[in-house]
Amino acid sequence: MSKKKVIKKEPEAVYKCRWCDKDKRESRFYRCAITHKSFICKDCIDRKYDELALKYDKNKAIFIICHYLDIPYYSDCVKSLGADEGIGYYIKQLNLMQNDIENFEMGVIKNNCIDFKPPEYIHIEAKYRLDEVIDRLEKIRDLF
How confident is residue 8, by pLDDT bands cut at 50, 70 and 90? Predict the structure, then answer.
């Protein structure tokens, strides 16, 4: 009979969640929370995501969580998620992607995912475009 070799596992690292202030094993954190030194546990992130998803749409909720975890935000990745898939699935997809963006700030800058125009300017611009269309239609009408 051959003897089986026993492989000793390294003890899992323990981190303190900066939101709930509890010491938790590495597996209780999303990998990106440790990599980006945000140190917020899965329980706290999931709870915060659920709270945000009740108030806002999935897109905004994930955007805000990306800020907390200091990870890139990709609107295309959010759009690819199913109806019942939330922040955990987003982070899995993000981990699978080959991306060169290392943090939230650079993700926002490189992806141009925010329109920085104040809402009042958006309405003024829309009104201006609508006025242009009306002018064109009136010119066409006057031709006949």
Answer: confident
